[in-house]
Amino acid sequence: MEKIIENILITDVADEGRGLGRYEGKVVFVSHAVPGDVVNVNVKRKKNKFIEGTIESVVSFSGDRVQPPCTHFGVCGGCKWQNMSYEKQLFFKQKQVTDALTRIGMLTEPEILPIKKSSGIYHYRNRLDFAFATREWMTQDQMHDETFKALPALGFHVPGKFDKILNIQNCFLQDDLSDKIRNFVRDYSIENDMSFFEHREQVGFLRSLIIRNTTTGEWMVIVMIKDDNEQKRKQLLEAITNQFPGITSLLYIINTKRNDTFFDLDFQVYKGQDFITEEMEGLQFRIGPKSFYQTNPLQAYELYKITREFAEFKGPEIVYDLYTGTGTIANFIARQVKKVIGMESVEEAVKHAKFNSDLNGIVNTSFYAGDMKDLLTEDFFNIHGFPDTIITDPPRAGMHADVVKAINNSGASRVVYVSCNAATQARDIALMRDHYRFIKAMPVDMFPHTQHVENVALLVKI
């Protein structure tokens, strides 16, 4: 269905970071369009109420449009707002939070503090996952270049295509060393006839590469192998060791399954230790290959400081930290309160949370694993003490209605709600309105050049 719609003014942003315009009463979603652009749209999908398309040509450019520095922009699927000025990105993230709280949360003129912008807008991530493929995904320009020869790939999945991998040369998400490691692994493997993974046939030696680092300068490199070849495995790992002697933790994992999940698999140490260590306000957080840690560590520190500031701890509080993960927030605030009780559904994460408390000599935390709606009950409150403050940081889906009900009946004087999805956060806040008064919120930009935004909200018992 190829059709061109001309002169569409992009006025806003929508889901998935797309530009939004209108045509004959229908909403038009346009990938990689910046508000203020006037574009001719190549229609890809047409429904009763909306149209989806791509830019066929730009009639006039928005004043907020900038030149994206990444050569892979528009193809790789990440950093969808890299062509929009950072100040305008912050404007739309602030607007996203405001719209959610007013339209979904039904709050009238909520106090929303200015968004906390990221101190760094490039090279801010501490983890990237790359996939191998027998043949790289070709862009339109490469397809029409008769001199271009497709090579085996090590890079990112093309959006919507599980078996197509875009060869990445330079990425602006992680420190430059990440590029050097990835490119070396790809080039060395090609030169030494090591087979790359074939996603449909499920065969090949090299499957994926994970690179993690910390603000303290430690690096973890994980090579995932499908069909193991001991000689080639040792050859590759030794080459990585010799090329990058500063790697703190070099691991490998053999995964013969049809998916890339590895939480049920064992990692093997080739060099160094099986963890790297992050630091925050003198606290140490040990990160293993299966550990979750906020992917923008410097901005995570700002997020946690805002959470602590909203809580206004006085010292004698019992604090419940819901969806505690590996206990980062719980351990971060433990020295300011009497006791912290962390709750999390993933048992492995709870083990890490307990370990991180022990590592830092923190003795006033306790952690429990289980489904939140089953854990957070009146019986639990009676056994462990009713909370003075609740901090909750749920996944994108927000909190189960039973969890919201338990919070409402907890008697906690303050609830600090940290969210990566302002829409579900606003929905939950609306369910708390008879028990808690919304005081203020502060958005935090954790992921520059994407549409994602965190938001910290403070609620006080009525």
Topology:
Layout: E1 4-9, E2 12-13, E3 19-23, E4 26-30, E5 38-46, E6 50-60, H1 86-104, E7 127-133, H2 140-143, E8 153-157, E9 165-167, H3 176-191, E10 206-213, E11 219-225, H4 230-243, E12 249-254, E13 268-272, E14 276-280, E15 283-287, H5 297-311, E16 318-322, H6 328-333, E17 339-344, H7 347-359, E18 365-369, H8 372-375, H9 378-384, E19 389-392, H10 401-408, E20 414-419, H11 422-431, E21 436-444, E22 454-461
Parallel strand pairs: 4-6, 11-12, 16-17, 16-19, 17-18, 19-20
Antiparallel strand pairs: 1-5, 2-3, 3-4, 5-6, 7-8, 7-10, 8-9, 10-11, 12-13, 14-15, 20-22, 21-22
Helix pairs in contact: 1-11, 3-4
Describe the protein's architecture and organization.
The protein has 462 residues and is of the alpha/beta class. The protein folds into three domains: 4-65, Beta Barrel (OB fold (Dihydrolipoamide Acetyltransferase, E2P)); 89-120 and 296-461, Vaccinia Virus protein VP39 (Rossmann fold, 3-Layer(aba) Sandwich), CATH 3.40.50.150; 127-280, OB fold (Dihydrolipoamide Acetyltransferase, E2P). 25% of the residues lie in helices and 29% in strands. It has eleven helices and 22 strands. A seven-stranded mixed β-sheet has the order 9-8-7-10-11-12-13, covered by helices on one side. α6 links the parallel β16 and β17. The longest helix is centred in the N-terminal third of the chain and has 19 residues, at 86-104.
